[in-house]
Specification:
Elements: H1 24-66, H2 77-99, H3 102-114
Region (Disordered): 1-23
Organism: Phycisphaera mikurensis (strain NBRC 102666 / KCTC 22515 / FYK2301M01)
Protein name: Flagellar protein FlgJ N-terminal domain-containing protein
Length: 118
């Protein structure tokens, strides 16, 4: 004998047993999950780009600044000396972001395989 308010089979009509229609809550949860994954992937890419810039490009730029290409004729004085490393960091980040180095893609893929680290 069926209880009042329940359809045959023990489920309320249109209740949680009806999985054929997506509801707003499920869509919101999926959307939040997708946004969190995209944000994590973006953060991993930015971290990988900064790593590649600091490990590969910054040493080259520092060498060029202090090496044979240095000239007193075009020197910017104290301001250039004080801000050179910040400028080089900004330029290295921009170069890596714009050039889409394959090593960045590899680092991001390896990080995705390992999952989040504490």
């Amino acid at each position: 004998m069926a209880s009042p308010g329940f359809a045959a089979g023990g489920h309320r009509p249109g209740g949680s047993a009806d999985r054929s229609r997506p509801n707003a809550f499920d869509a919101a949860v999926r959307g939040a999950h997708d946004r969190a994954e995209a944000r994590a992937a973006d953060e991993a890419r930015v971290a990988a780009e900064r790593f590649v810039a600091s490990a590969f490009l910054l040493p080259l730029m520092a060498e060029a600044r202090g090496g044979a290409l240095k000239s007193d004729l075009f020197g910017g004085g104290f301001g250039q000396d004080a801000m050179a490393q910040q400028l080089e960091t900004h330029l290295a980040d921009a170069v890596v972001r714009g050039a889409r180095f394959p090593v960045v893609d590899r680092i991001v893929a390896d990080a995705a395989k390992r999952g989040p680290q504490p």
